[in-house]
Hints:
The protein has helices at residues 15-26, 75-84; strands spanning 5-11, 29-33, 41-45, 54-57, 65-71, 88-96, 100-106, 112-118. The protein is of the alpha+beta class. It folds into two domains: 1-61, 2,3-Dihydroxybiphenyl 1,2-Dioxygenase, domain 1 (Roll), CATH 3.10.180.10; 72-122, 2,3-Dihydroxybiphenyl 1,2-Dioxygenase, domain 1 (Roll), CATH 3.10.180. A hairpin with a 5-residue loop joins strand 7 (100-106) and strand 8 (112-118). It is globular and about 40 Å long. It starts with a strand and ends with a strand.
Amino acid sequence: MxxxxxxxxxxxxxxxxxxxxxxxxxxxxxxxxPMDPQYSYGLVMTNAGKGADGAIHYQAQGPRGVTIYVEVxxxxxxxxxxxKMGGKVVxxxxxxxxxxxxxxxxxxxxxxxxxxxxxxxx
Length: 122
């Protein structure tokens, strides 16, 4: 099964500035999802008709920079395989009901990647 990149997240200490910058530069639409005051999550729609949409947010405990999410049919199986290959679990498999199941790991060089299983597989 091919495993496409289906989502990305930019974790930055000033998400509002980054959201505005990217929206103004690229013509993206950013919809901020109401969460607690310490966590701003802006869903990004590139409006391109191709490529992956993403998010610009800030999470103090999360890895800084960009994390790509690869769609898989079984996040736990891929997470287990990543660990056997020398990776480390950053976030265990987590389900957000009616949305997504995901996990995050780092490869042996410390690069952070996400695994995602959408409720509706392509």
